[in-house]
Specification:
The complex is a heterodimer of chains A (113) and B (132).
Chain A: E1 8-9, E2 19-20, H1 25-29, H2 33-36, E3 40-44, H3 50-56, E4 61-66, H4 69-82, E5 87-91, E6 104-110
Parallel strand pairs in A: 3-4, 3-6, 4-5
Antiparallel strand pairs in A: 1-2
Chain B: H1 2-10, E1 12-23, E2 30-33, E3 36-43, H2 45-63, E4 67-81, H3 84-93, E5 97-100, H4 104-109, E6 116-129
Antiparallel strand pairs in B: 1-6, 2-3, 2-6, 3-5, 4-6
The chains are: A alpha/beta (113), B alpha+beta (132).
Chain lengths: 113, 132
Amino acid sequence: MAEPEGASPVGWLGCASAIRPRDDIELRAMRAAPYIRGKDVLDIGTGEGRLSWVIAATARSVVGIDPDTAAIRAARREARRRELENVRFVSRPAQDLRIGHERFDTALFSWSL
Amino acid sequence: MVDALHEARSALRPGGTLIDLRPDSTQPPRVVRDGVDIGGFYERRKAIGDNRASDRAVARVVRDGLLKPLRAGSFWYDTSYPDLASLDAWLVSSLRIGGYTRGTRAMLRKDRDRPLIVRRALAFGIYRRTEG
């Protein structure tokens, strides 16, 4: 498989010189658009929000959850930088979401189950 | 893992969708150079065990009638590295990958400055919340 168009340098693999595929390749491969577009989405194991940015482009709202507080801080900073109003991040493990009465159309375990 | 699935399910509206996306431990990652498969990696026992536990957890929740499978599949996910040193650096930090399979690194050392691709299989399952 040739390197997908639009590959970009990243640090999430633990190696800044790695080039990974476009962020949307996973969602496209799963044909997940019907479960994302216009939906309220819970991104479980969001890390620094890698997939949340892609989801936020078409979803009504995204809540990204991860137990890694440093990653969540980075995700919040990035959300502010991107001026995204339909994304928020919460530092919490998947076993204890504590999201109160909030309900979602889609929950995505992104490399996290 | 069952707890996490129950939590996620309870966070869904009736009829909502749960998507489980993760590396497929049945197909260990490969390393490719110039389009040629050079060798592979082995996954840590814990990662394989965790993956199997996740499979069992999903199966149990489905069996309990809480989620209905809609669709499943797998696909390849390629990550590129400019040279062997950068691949080694990633490998050291990986929680899932334990190391190269026998003979792989010796093959890679022969052209250590050439770009490399790690090819991983990702598996996914898409499920609908049921009111079981």
